[in-house]
């Protein structure tokens, strides 16, 4: 396995454009040979995860390898007219995470998640949520990090992590 040296840092405001790519990469696609069209990120229920990013309760960390952003984890509270898939309530940030394919399974996603969990705890949030497809390999990562299933739907789980100050 090719372990690359990476650093995790806050996303700068002039890097918000990367969220388009990261959002598309975050969509679980079970069939690598029949990928969803990139325009899917324009659907209101998906676009809500990054639209006008930078509001209160929006926070994003990126993973960088030799100057290239290869992954991101971001949270926001989606309590407006369009709720997130992992919506819990108007005080619980919802996770989104993605890594470019060639950087997966190297511990970068775990490091991003841990750093964001630490940040949310320090900020005083009580819990965080996410939605994950039942077939997504990341499901096991979320369990290892302490996320618990609180709702099972046909194709996905809503999971919650209790944060401790």
Can you give a write-up of this model?
By secondary structure, this protein is an alpha+beta fold. The protein has a single domain, classed as 3-Layer(aba) Sandwich (Aminopeptidase), CATH 3.40.630. It contains four helices and seven strands. The protein has a four-stranded antiparallel β-sheet with strand order 1-2-3-4, sandwiched between helices.
Q: How would you summarize the topology of this molecule?
A:
Layout: E1 7-10, H1 18-26, H2 44-47, E2 59-65, E3 68-76, E4 94-99, H3 108-122, E5 127-133, H4 138-144, E6 148-152, E7 156-162
Antiparallel strand pairs: 1-2, 2-3, 3-4, 5-7, 6-7
Name a few traits of the molecule.
Aminopeptidase, 3-stranded antiparallel β-sheet, alpha+beta, globular, single chain, 165 residues, 4 helices, 7 strands
Largest sheet: 4 strands, antiparallel
Task: Determine the structural class based on helices, strands and strand pairing.
Answer: alpha+beta
The portion of residues forming beta strands comes to: 25-35%
Alpha carbon gyration radius: 15 Å
Q: Count the beta strands.
A: 7
Per DSSP, the total helix count is: 4
Order of H and E elements: EHHEEEHEHEE
- What is the CATH topology descriptor? Aminopeptidase
């Amino acid at each position: 396995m090719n372990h690359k040296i990476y650093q995790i840092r806050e996303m700068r405001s002039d890097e918000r454009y990367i969220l388009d790519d990261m959002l598309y990469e975050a969509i679980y696609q079970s069939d690598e040979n029949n990928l969803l069209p990139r325009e899917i990120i324009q659907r209101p229920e998906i676009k809500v995860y990054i639209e006008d990013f930078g509001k209160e309760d929006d926070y994003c960390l990126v993973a960088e390898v030799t100057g290239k952003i290869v992954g991101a984890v971001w949270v926001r509270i989606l309590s407006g007219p369009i709720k997130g898939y992992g919506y819990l309530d108007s005080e619980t940030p919802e996770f989104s995470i993605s890594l470019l394919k060639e950087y997966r399974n190297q511990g970068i996603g775990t490091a991003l998640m841990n750093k964001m969990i630490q940040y949310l705890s320090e900020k005083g949030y009580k819990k965080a949520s996410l939605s994950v497809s039942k077939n997504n390999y990341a499901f096991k990562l979320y369990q290892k990090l302490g996320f618990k299933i609180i709702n099972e739907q046909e194709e996905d789980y809503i999971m919650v992590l209790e944060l401790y100050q």
